[in-house]
Specification:
Length: about 325
């Protein structure tokens, strides 16, 4: 569980948000990577400034941390991910699931995968209605452990390229599509900017969750549902070789931790996000996956293991504590 004192001052109209992305460029151990981090950080901040002035960010706590570290060693130090994390959440290690997502993908894996074609008559469903999320409900679902496409990203993209015909780039996913109505997004290329976006939206008193599941079943019965509230930031690891996360906050969204059990008794826990307002979703994709028009009724989807969900700090039921990423 991530627990810290409240923070994350937000001031609109010429103010600023406090986060940690500006100084994340100091995390790189080599000059080449350091310069690359600077470039990506500048691009990210220009992109952010275009969307909202409130993403002009300064990290006072990390400035102090770096100054203290540099003073101790007689030069400016380059903190690693653990140091950065500890400066915000002392005595709390980086969650294992998050640490794994910070590693570069194997060489050759550079294309961001979009949802596969869905035939509801034969293949598992990706989306489902909120009314189906109740105890005793049997669902036919499938969890892809490594190739799972972050569906949440595609649902909010106005234009979707066919990855079999066109190569997708970081700019395609993060910059060339405008924000959807009710969506605030940011593409993070470092742990610092990832933390920064979540903190700027929710303060420091937050926790990070992820799905925990097996990859051998299709039919599950809902055994438990815990409502995590209507405020969350979702960060999806994009399938580029270099680290990149698509983070967004979507209004009129409710998150749940769901316990599922398979016919053979195998239990799994997964995160579910339900959207009450679907008017800004990609019309073609929603029609294809659900056969409904936007804003007809609330729809939900599972979050895969390449996604981190930030929610306000709360006391989880004992049943779900193993699913807290901390």
């Amino acid at each position: 569980m991530l627990a810290a004192s409240k923070g994350g001052t937000t001031c609109r109209g010429g103010g600023f948000d406090v986060d940690y992305s500006l100084l994340a460029i100091y995390m790189s151990p080599s000059r080449q990577e350091f310069e690359s981090q600077i470039f990506h950080s500048l691009i990210s901040h220009l992109y952010i400034a275009r969307m909202e002035f409130r993403y002009l960010v300064i990290s006072f706590s990390i400035l102090f941390f770096l100054a203290h570290a540099g003073e101790s060693h007689g030069r400016l130090s380059v903190p690693d991910d653990e140091d950065l994390w500890q400066s915000v959440w002392p005595n709390t290690p980086i969650p294992t699931a998050l640490r794994d997502l910070l590693n570069p993908l194997p060489s050759g894996v550079e294309i961001y995968d979009l949802p596969r074609q869905i035939d509801d008559g034969h293949n598992p469903r990706i989306l489902f209605y909120k009314e189906d999320l109740h105890l005793g409900k049997t669902m036919k679902v499938q969890f892809y452990k490594s190739e799972a496409p972050p569906l949440s990203v595609s649902l909010w993209q106005k234009e979707i390229k066919d990855p079999e015909k066109e190569v997708l780039t970081f700019a395609d996913v993060c910059m060339r599509n405008d924000e959807a109505k009710g969506e605030h997004r940011f593409c993070a290329t470092s742990l610092g900017s990832l933390m920064g976006f979540a903190i700027s939206k929710m303060g420091k008193n937050i926790q990070a969750l992820s799905s925990l599941f097996v990859n051998k079943q299709e039919e599950y019965t809902v055994e438990g549902v815990q409502n995590l509230g209507d405020k969350a930031v979702t960060c999806h690891r994009l399938n580029f070789q270099k680290v990149a996360f698509y983070c967004h906050e979507v209004h009129q969204t409710t998150s749940f931790m769901v316990q599922l059990v398979a016919a053979d008794g195998t239990k799994t826990q997964t995160l579910v996000v339900c959207h009450s307002d679907t008017s800004s979703m990609n019309h073609q994709l929603l029609q294809h996956l659900m056969g409904v028009h936007p804003q007809t009724k609330p729809v939900c989807h599972f979050l895969g293991n390449k996604t981190i969900l930030w929610v306000p700090n709360l006391v989880m039921d004992a049943t779900y504590e193993t699913n807290i990423v901390a």
